[in-house]
Amino acid sequence: MATATAAETASAPAAAAPLRIVGGLANVNQYTRHEEPFWTQELPRLTNGKLRATIVPFDRAGIRGQDMLRLMQLGVVPFGTALVSLSSATEPLLGAADLAGLNPDMASLRRHVMAYRPFLEKTLRERHGVELLAIYVYPAQMLFCQRPLKGLADLAGRRVRTASATQADWVEALGAHPVNTAFAELTQNLRSGNVECALTGSMSGYTIGLQQHTRHLFTMPVSWGMAVFGANTGAWAALPADQRSTLKQELMRLEQVIWADSERETGDGVRCLTGEHACGGQPGRLQARAPTPADDQRRRNVLAGTVIARWIQRCGSPCAEAWNQTIGPISGVEARSGASPQ
Fold first, then answer.
1. Could you give the number of structural domains in the chain?
2. Rounded to the nearest 5°, which phi and psi values hold at 275?
3. Which of 69, 152, 252, 300 has the fewest Cβ atoms within 10 angstroms?
4. Are residues 52 and 93 in the same domain?
5. What are the pLDDT digits (tens) for 138-187?
6. What average pLDDT does the segment 3-32 reach?
7. pLDDT in tens, 75-88
């Protein structure tokens, strides 16, 4: 049997080190069904082993979601998933396409993200040194409550779990008390009585067992839970051109799969929570109520009168300008710099 000479061994190309990926939230379908299999199984298969990766969800990696963009900018996280709701605390511009009350359905979200995407790419590259490679979205964020909720007017006075400043603005404008709570702490806060309602994804809520801690579901999408996946620009430039091309192509495919699944899971989550479907977990018996035309009008009034104004207060005239050049003409809502919230 022939054996390789020392010279041949020395000249053989070394296997590329696996890419280090920090993914989204652990224990939700987006990560377990899509992100993790894409990096650990599909990508090596599609590239005949030329591209390999390891991945860990950020909330199991000892990383605060609020720090993700900064860690990507520094190169500490070369490839990472940043939840817009958390990153918007330091960069409010990121959250324009998913402000609370803006997108009552997936079609609206698609239009607004498409309009805003070029500006988002430019902002991430120039201000944060991050190359935008994909935009992910979780199922619609809805209101889970322990007591009946017939409409938005019934929310007044209740303590509501929120996950972002824009959700807090929306809840507060309805007379409720927002309580910012990490996803991992959501059930404990409901169990302890710290909150009596929670804003979270329909399927995400089912997955973590909110059907055991709440009794009522208001099915109006308040927001959708966007996330951006990107790379430190130095780490991205260091990859060979053919690998960058492959990643862009395959990540666009992954993005489309995640969006389609999130739209489907929005409805499936409601059916699982109400017991219409047997979904494999604890049976749900929540009472679901859809928004009325009056609720939808109030959603839009709160968006225009409070949510956008407070968002502009946090990041100034650049937000108003970006909104009016991209999302404003599509949504029919103008942003006015310096306007006071109602």
1. 2
2. 85, 5
3. 252
4. yes
5. 999 999 999 999 999 999 999 999 999 999 999 999 999 999 998 889 99
6. 70
7. 999 999 999 988 99
Question: Encoding tokens for residue 178?
Answer: 């927002």
Show the domain range for 184: 141-223+278-331
pTM as predicted = 0.89
Structure tokens at 229: 């996946």
Q: Where are the alpha helices (DSSP H) in the chain?
A: 6-11, 29, 36-37, 43-46, 68-74, 84-87, 106-128, 165-173, 186-192, 202-207, 233-238, 241-274, 293-302, 308-315, 317-325, 328-331
Asked if 229 and 219 sit in the same domain, the reply is no
Is 105 in the same domain as 66? yes
Is the domain of 196 the same as that of 284?
A: yes
pLDDT > 60? residue 42: yes
Co-location of 310 and 233 in the same domain? no
CA distances for 204 relative to 60, 176, 191, 266, 326, angstroms: 17, 23, 17, 9, 30
> What tens digit of pLDDT does each residue of 108-142 get?
999 999 999 999 999 999 999 999 999 999 999 99
104: phi then psi, degrees, rounded to nearest 5: -75, -5
Tell me how far apart the alpha carbons of residues 266 and 263 are, in angstroms, rounded to a whole number: 5
Task: Let me know whether 129 and 248 are in one domain.
Answer: yes
Domain at 211, CATH number:
3.40.190.170
Q: Which residue has the tokens 């710099």?
A: 337
